[in-house]
Design goal:
The complex is a heterodimer of chains A (about 170) and B (about 425). Chain A is α+β, with helices and mostly antiparallel strands. Chain A folds into two domains: about 70 residues, NADH-quinone oxidoreductase subunit E (Arc Repressor Mutant, subunit A); about 80 residues, Glutaredoxin, CATH 3.40.30. Chain A has seven helices and four strands, in the order H-H-H-H-E-H-H-E-E-E-H. A four-stranded mixed β-sheet of chain A has the order 2-1-3-4, with helices on one face. In chain A, helix 1 packs antiparallel against helix 2 and helix 2 crosses helix 3. Chain B has about 425 residues and is of the alpha/beta class. Chain B folds into three domains: about 210 residues, Rossmann fold, CATH 3.40.50; about 80 residues, Ubiquitin-like (UB roll); about 90 residues, Up-down Bundle (de novo design (two linked rop proteins)). Chain B contains 19 helices and nine strands. The model of chain B has no long low-confidence stretch (mean pLDDT about 95). The chains are: A alpha+beta (about 170), B alpha/beta (about 425). At the A-B interface, helix 2, helix 4 and helix 5 of A face strand 3, strand 5, strand 9 and helix 15 of B.
Chain lengths: ~170, ~425
């Protein structure tokens, strides 16, 4: 479960932009129950502003016509929903089984020693954040790291350095 | 040893695109499908011997027959693409390399079970995979394979991709349904089984991606053609994911029934140079580990695995060589299950955390001689005392490490004892 203590206000009201609003309306026709829109709506929120504020939880509940407590329950149960802003470069290192056997710890140690990051933390400049996550389903090309949603397979410390340098210089990884 | 049944289009460039997939046979079974009675389709699938490829191995066609007859409620199909069991990475290939094979399978299944609404539950981490799948679905709608009149027939099928958000438990079929309904992924008590009361309280069939993707071949070539692969009771082919400390890890399609060690050696290149085999996890992290000696006589089918007191599982094979510290590996796995417990049942929520603490203490040099038996006792007191089998997935695995590699746990504890100051 996500840490409920992480819940934060953004200090400004939330509403879907035109693109997300259209996707919300498309999805609304796909389910016989509006509560089914909770997970997709939270994805749309995160897609739009990077994380899920308490204002967004209230907005989603209102749009769907359900209780804010139910949206809150979902937002805090599923670990991929960010309840606080993450770094511009959000790094998820797989920690399980095959990635463990093939040296994921070296990658975590490198990030700790070089960037001062510990799992669950965000760097002071807001550039990096790190999470150790459970199996990412890429065991045949372990160890795997997911950065801003993109998978990087057969990772090593050297490869990670290259990817991060590219991302920092504004390029795509 | 490799075969190309499900993976026939995997190596064709852009086979995720409709035009390319169609040129290579996609949607070729649909004309035949609509000339058949739904019950006939189910009979073919039953006769093929296809078993659920998510891990449980329950016969797919038989599962469909559990739907109640004559009910005045819609029937739903939920396709399980949660793929979260550590060591499992097979369904991803279908989603990315041949999504139209999956969509064709969904059409076949929907027709057989008279369902008009299919939901594909895909794990949240598969972001790019979900995009490719959605693009394929959009193409299928545009081409008339999905929508109000499938290929002009009076049969509607709508397919919706529902993304999870990072919860292993949502691979459990009733947790998956809860998640589609917009709730926490906490499994339901059974009965009622989903075939009777599933999504939105309606009859629901939940099948794994690979099971559904196997349907076009079975319908096109017939049950006997499928049974020509594999063994008497474990028919067909399977996408095996081989990972861990092996020379050529990867996804390989193989008929069922091949000798495990031969597959590891010949298909995946065997252990790295200068290393020896220590053990094999045969079918995903929850399946009891096999020692190198036990592995010699195992074949890759449901019956052989059961005879060796382990399980076929999801076809995720992990190779362990002599460098692996079994105590630390066990701790890594228990951490996974502890983290992924939904928190609903006390034995799982509290028990897995307790076991993790004990293992952590053993590794940190603070273990006590009685800890090994305490862990075994905890396994007995947690297993099957919960709503779902997540806790059993953890305890079955942990028990196998404790029993088969007990000396390694004892060595940690003995070192602890020898490090104590002598009074």
């Amino acid at each position: 479960m996500s840490n409920r203590a992480e819940l934060m206000e953004s200090g400004k009201p939330f509403a879907f932009d035109a693109e997300r609003d259209a996707e919300f309306e498309r999805l609304a026709k796909r389910y016989p129950s509006r509560d089914s829109l909770i997970l997709p709506s939270l994805w749309l929120v995160q897609d739009q502003q990077g994380w899920i504020s308490t204002e967004a939880i209230a907005y989603v509940a209102d749009r769907i016509g359900t209780f804010a407590s139910q949206v809150y329950e979902v937002a805090t149960f599923y670990t991929m929903y960010h309840l606080q802003p993450k770094g511009k470069i959000h790094i998820c290192v797989c920690r399980t089984l095959s990635c463990y056997l093939l040296g994921k710890q070296q990658i975590v140690d490198y990030l700790h020693n070089e960037l001062g990051l510990k799992p669950g933390q965000i760097s002071e400049d807001g550039l990096f954040s790190l999470e150790e996550v459970e199996c990412l389903g890429h065991c045949g090309s372990a160890p795997v790291v997911q950065i801003n949603g993109e998978f990087h397979e057969n990772m090593s410390v050297d490869k990670l350095k290259e990817v991060l340098a590219t991302l920092q210089s504004g390029g795509r990884s | 040893m490799e075969v190309k049944i499900l993976s026939a289009r995997f190596d064709i460039a852009d086979a995720n695109k409709l035009e390319v997939a169609k040129k290579h046979g996609a949607y070729g079974t649909l004309e035949k499908l609509f000339t058949m009675e739904p019950a006939e389709v189910t009979e073919v699938v039953k006769a093929s011997g296809l078993r659920g490829r998510g891990g449980a191995g329950f016969p797919t066609g038989l599962k469909w027959t559990f739907l109640p007859k004559g009910l005045d409620k819609p029937v739903y199909l939920a396709v399980n693409s949660d793929e979260s069991e550590p060591a499992t990475f097979k369904d991803r290939y279908i989603l990315v390399r041949d999504p139209h094979m999956l969509i064709e399978g969904i059409i076949i299944c929907c027709y057989a079970i008279n369902s008009h609404d299919a939901y594909i539950y895909i794990r949240g981490e598969y972001i790019y995979q979900a995009k490719i799948l959605q693009a394929a679905i959009d193409e299928a709608y545009a081409a008339g394979y999905l929508g109000d009149k499938v290929l002009g027939h009076d049969f509607r099928i709508d397919v919706t991709v529902h993304r999870g958000a990072g919860a292993y438990i949502c691979g459990e079929e009733t947790a998956l349904l809860e998640s589609i309904e917009g709730k926490k992924g906490q499994p339901r008590s059974k009965p009622p089984f989903p075939a009777v009361e599933g999504l939105y309280g309606c009859p629901t069939i939940i099948n794994n991606v690979q099971s559904i993707a196997s349907l076009p071949f079975i319908l096109e070539k017939g049950a006997d053609a499928y049974k020509a692969y594999g063994t008497e009771k474990s028919s067909g082919t399977h996408l095996f994911g081989i990972s861990g400390l092996v020379k050529k890890p990867g996804m390989y399609e193989l008929p069922l029934g091949l000798p495990l060690v031969e597959v590891v050696d010949k298909v995946a290149g065997g252990v790295r140079d200068g290393r020896t085999l220590k053990g094999i996890i045969p079918g995903g992290s929850s399946t009891p580990v096999l020692t190198a000696e036990e592995a010699q006589s195992v074949t890759l089918d449901y019956e052989s695995m059961a005879a060796h007191k382990t399980m076929f599982g999801s076809g995720g094979i992990v190779v362990l060589d002599d460098t692996v510290d079994m105590v630390k590996l066990a701790e890594n796995l228990v951490h996974f299950y502890y983290h992924e417990s939904c928190g609903q049942c006390t034995p799982c929520r509290e028990g897995l955390g307790w076991m993790l603490k004990i293992l952590g203490a053993i590794i940190a040099g603070k273990g006590k001689a009685k800890d090994i038996d305490l862990l075994l006792e905890l396994c007995d007191n947690i297993e099957m005392k919960t709503v779902c089998v997540l806790s059993a997935a953890c305890t079955m695995a942990l028990r196998s490490y404790l029993n088969k590699f007990r000396s390694e746990f004892e060595a940690y504890i003995a070192n602890t004892a020898s490090a104590q100051p002598v009074m």
